[in-house]
Amino acid sequence: MFLLIFNQLLKMLIILILAFICYKMKVVSQEGNKSVSNLLLMVVNPCLIITVYQTDYDARLVKGLLIAFAAACMSHIIGIIIARFLIPAKNNPEYSLDRFGAVYSNCGFIGIPLIYSVLGNEGVFYLTAYMTVFNLFTWTHGLSLLENKFTLKQLKEGLLSPMIIATFIAVILFFIQFKIPATVLDSMNYIADMNTPLAMMVAGFSVAQADLKKIFTTFHLYWVSLLKLIAMPLMVAVFLFAAGISHDIAYTTLIAAACPTATTTTMMAIRYNRNYTYSSEIFALTTVLSMVTIPFVTFVAGFLIK
């Protein structure tokens, strides 16, 4: 598993570097970055989710999905506890963004292509549970961090995100065993195959916009990154081992938890008038460091998860 993940991350890193260069050379503008991001979020990811659910009904998969939901909930709770006690509010005006960044992973843009490459459709099938829980926690706990309040209207908005809607549709089609016509499904698979390159392009464009010199010389950002990329996933690995979670579900949950800070952090910082520049710095540093930390975490976890 370690070698598979390392090899895939190396490929993804090459795409990220190419995107970084393209942005610096002004081949792609900020408007282009936004368009690619929207295409990935609104079209490519939903197509991928729907296609992975186009499989024969299997009670084992259903049971696994329920276990994946429970594991995802526990993973987020572990992250919340770690952030609450290791990122104090005192003398830290950006503590809410630090905690948000330490808990919530880029399980969509980074998690989907990575898990798809090492675990295939079944891994993405289980990953939908993590992404659903991610959205639920983001628009409840996450929002309470940024706004110190929570409303059902805001939760409703989160539940109407493209990924949640696509997952809902995909689950219905799976349970009623409705098969999408082969020609249409093949077209959707072609679109879904764009997920990895587009996701890493978006990550590369985003990193290119950050002040890397400032980021790499700010000690506090390394502390947040350490919690997000090492402490949280390793604690999740211990939980998965103690709970006896099966291999594929365990690695799906672990990789999702080990992904860098979610792009949602910056999006929500902009929306709720927080320091979005600082949130983008957390995203950029954790994205770069994750190319090393994800293989490290999976290597360590390999001694626990069999």
UniProtKB/TrEMBL annotation:
It is a multi-pass membrane protein. It is found in: Cell membrane. The keyword Transport applies. It holds the Pfam family Mem_trans. Keywords: Cell membrane, Membrane, Transmembrane, Transmembrane helix, Transport. The chain crosses the membrane at residues 6-23, 35-53, 65-87, 99-119, 125-146, 158-178, 220-243, 249-270, 282-305. The keyword RNA-binding does not apply. Belongs to the auxin efflux carrier (TC 2.A.69) family. This is AEC family transporter. It comes from Faecalicatena faecalis.
